[in-house]
Amino acid sequence: MLQINLLRQQPDFVIDRLKIKNFDATDLVSKILEIDTNRRNVQRQADDAQAELNQLAKEIGQLFREGNAEKADLLKEETTQIKETSKEFSAELSKLEQEQHQLILTLPNLPHESVKAGRTADDNEIIASFGEIKSDDSLLPHWELTQKYNLIDFDLGSKITGAGFPIYRGKGAKLQRALIQYFLDKASENGYEEVQVPYLVNEASAYATGQLPDKDGQMYHAQIDNLFLIPTAEVPVTNIYRDVILKADELPLKNCAYSACFRREAGSYGKDVRGLNRLHQFDKVEIVQITHPDDSYKTLEMMKDYVASIIKELNLPFRILRLCGGDISFTSALTYDMEVYSKGQNRWLEVSSVSNFETFQTNRLKLRFKDKEGKMQLAHSLNGSALALPRIMAALIENNQTADGINIPEVLHKYTSFTKIQ
Predict the structure, then answer these.
(1) 249 falls in which pLDDT band (50, 70, 90)?
(2) Poorest-confidence range of 32-41, 271-280, 367-376?
């Protein structure tokens, strides 16, 4: 959530920066500032009324001490009317504050200065590429391989739940578990504290990390209890620090978590959803950092390089993209995507996003720290997929298929207990 002081002091800057995200904030910022002016006027009137009440209370006390009860009673009648007026001010103030808050929630985060304008994923910048793409065009897509080797049953998942809820079987299930354990071990080796988190969060948590109201229609909602299935472990992990005041020397905080993730993916269709490409339930290991504002972009580069190192160890061809304004998320200031090449489909598959949210989430979270001078500051929050399982699994089995089976990357051998799927 953008800070109101920024909107007051630099409204034109906010409007111009959000144009990079193809978001026209002109009318919205104007409305927010109009409400803010009204709110501050009401606040001044409420403060004046309270000051008058305080003054009258002193005068009434003095009159009683002097034995002038008759005049004191007259003043007490006057305070009754002022108290009623104060209640009206309080109600109006609450209404304006809520209206202003709801409008600010609909403003996206400002993109970092390095984010370029663009409308779609086609406008993203490729900043690095690694590995070689095989020239063999006879390789099968993963949905045929998983059926051939009995690794994943999409039809059975559809029978039990619906499309987008696959069942992993035999070596497919073991390979999935091996990848999860490998990702968690790598995160722990790199200083991330592992946490196990709930898969359901309350409305306050969903608002705090920016899923609500922006992704309202994309989340599974348990309406009776008003709880939401998490679209990523980012939501519960980051909310560990909601309403927390840290000390500067506690930063950075580093957490990792494995979770199932649930996304409605409303409106998804076509080749992009076939097989493991787009699921309603999938597994992911998430990394989250809470940092000092001065360090967050250095941290983002380190997180990007860390995720890249994992993909390199899996020996998959991949590339790193800096997202353009039209493709970056509502909450992010700067995002790097990692895409692996799926040889069986001859296309790139996104397997990770690593993002810096600056103060956008921490303002909602009220996550602050005391700097060396004892002044309160908002921390910066960052997160990344390290990694998302479905498309990693798809690329891994497609790129490692041979005439007599699927080779398992060496780094996973100690986790799978087998070196080949046949």
Answers:
(1) very high
(2) 271-280
pTM of the complete model: 0.92
Distance in angstroms (rounded) separating the CA atoms of residues 66 and 72? 10
Asked if residue 206 lies in contact with residue 235, where contact means CB atoms within 8 angstroms, the answer is yes
Residue listed under structure tokens 């999935």? 176
Nearest alpha carbon to residue 55 among 74, 79, 77, 71:
79
Cα separation of 418 and 422, whole Å? 10
Element (H, E) at 195: none
SS3 letters across 211-269: CCCCCHHHCCEECCCCEEECCCCHHHHHHCCCCCEEEHHHCCEEEEEEEEEECCCCCCC
Phi, psi for 346 (deg, rounded to 5): 55, 50
Give the pairing of strands 368-370 and 245-247: parallel
- With CA atoms as reference, report the closest residue to 385 among 349, 422, 338, 340: 338
Give CA–CA dist 416/381, Å, rounded.
34
Find all residues with CB under 8 Å of 46, minimum gap 6, and list them: 86, 89, 90, 93
**pLDDT exceeds cutoff 60 at 267:** no
Cα gap 398→245, rounded to integer Å: 47
> Tell me, what amino acid is at 122?
D
Confidence of residue 362 (pLDDT cuts 50, 70, 90): very high
Task: Give residue-wise pLDDT tens across range 302-325.
Answer: 999 999 999 999 999 999 999 999
Q: What is the dihedral of CA 284, 290, 295, 299, to 10 degrees?
A: -10
Tell how strand 281-291 and strand 193-194 pair up: unpaired
Confidence of residue 237 (pLDDT cuts 50, 70, 90): very high
- Three-class DSSP category at 175: helix
Structure tokens at 324: 């353009």
Q: What is the DSSP string of 103-159?
A: HHHTSPPPPPTTPPP-SSGGG-EEEEEES-----TTPPPHHHHHHHTT-EEHHHHHH
User: Do 148 and 140 contact (CB within 8 A), yes or no?
Assistant: yes
Is beta strand 376-378 parallel, antiparallel or unpaired with respect to 405-407? Answer: unpaired
Residue (of 240, 379, 225, 230) closest to 296 by Cα position:
379
* Per-residue confidence band for 269, with pLDDT thresholds at 50, 70 and 90: low
Residue 357 phi/psi, 5° resolution? -100, 0
